[in-house]
## 1
Amino acid sequence: MAEVEIRAVSKAFKKTQAVSDLSLTVGDGEFVALLGPTGAGKTTTLRLIAGLEMPDRGSIRIGGRDVTGDAPADRDVAFVFQQYSLYPHLTVFENMAFALRAPIRRVPEAEIRAKVREVARLLHIETKLDNKATQLSGGQMQRVAIGRALVRSPAIYLMDEPLSSLDAKLRGEMRLELKRIQTDLGATILYVTHDQTEAMTMASRIGVIEAGRLLQIGTPREIYENPINAHVAARLGQPAINLLPAALFAGAPRGARTIGARTEHLTIARGGGDVSGDRHADRASRRPEPSPSRPWRPTRRDVVRP
Ligand SMILES: Nc1ncnc2c1ncn2[C@@H]1O[C@H](COP(=O)(O)OP(=O)(O)O)[C@@H](O)[C@H]1O
Ligand SMILES: [Mg+2]
């Protein structure tokens, strides 16, 4: 595994600026999630790292080496695609062994067998190794697709919404399993998703991406508690943060347009119908904790930029 660094990378498709001046470092052994809606530039970012797209500007380094001009095969990355495609006529074992059988890798057959079995065990598909890929449920096929990447030990695993086609229950299970496997293997992963729960539960750091720009990167807690603007604030949290016009609050700081208050920061007052909060909203303030006699009033730091 190795550190991967993207420096000021931009990529346009005709008039669409898919990725704009994006810089990001995934540390060796780190699990970073890129979180953003459809069209944000997530897949393009992964494809740029893998060498499936060439950047218009900027550079990509893997393990300290500039790979910007290198072919995909020379970059030592493993890609789990959103639309996974298994070879239907091959067994699960053969599907997983496929990447290891590439002539340039020259992996001995005994080693291939041992590796495939080990990864199949991690993914709980060891009893399916002799099945044809078509004789699997959707969840099992997805595991095989992930397994095909995990049998290798590349510099980095690039995963493009690998759980998005699973039903909610399986997705929840796979989140936990993937996180456990990543920790066990010490794997370096850049994981792309539009699902905030996935990002919050699996990643050590989350990059919030929108319209090709990385808006903020930090630990889940940093991004949740200290979002840099209203857009990032709204991306994380269930229920979503309450973004209210500052004019509703008598005590709003001068110039404030929006007040962000997370649900857990609000208390419903008895009687007078006053809205108060037991803690500040995001952009934590350093003022003292409010008490019943001193209802919550937003301060400058409760204000999130629109
Ligand atoms: N090969 C392509 N040709 C033209 N436009 C593309 C191509 N790939 C991506 N785009 C555009 O770039 C933007 C970012 O796409 P993508 O990286 O796939 O976003 P995401 O994975 O976050 O949904 C979108 O507007 C998309 O339509
Ligand atoms: Mg995508």
## 2
Amino acid sequence: MTEQELKEIRERLEAATPGPWEASGSPYGINVYTLDGITICEKDEATRADFMNADFIAKSSTDIRRLLDEVEHLKHSISCATCAECADQVGDKWELFNHSIYCSNCINYVKEVYNDK
Ligand SMILES: [Zn+2]
């Protein structure tokens, strides 16, 4: 996943009504709403699948924020790792190749050597 894709997901999250959201439902309908009562979406005559979809939608606001924060944390942690080739810190422009992490200075060389084998 690219930085641009992550940025676009974060922008969609920030543009949506702030969470957390909740879902409620019965055979007569489902409702996804904020804790202060703003309706996100609703549907009459809901099935069990409709309720599961509503629960997924309701949790997405919080789940996506947590996932984005975790990705950011993991990327930062990886940026402190050392390159498997030169042993320098990989920084923000690292690449995973053949189960090892390489800095941007080494990755092309490593791939050439690997592909020549
Ligand atoms: Zn390196």
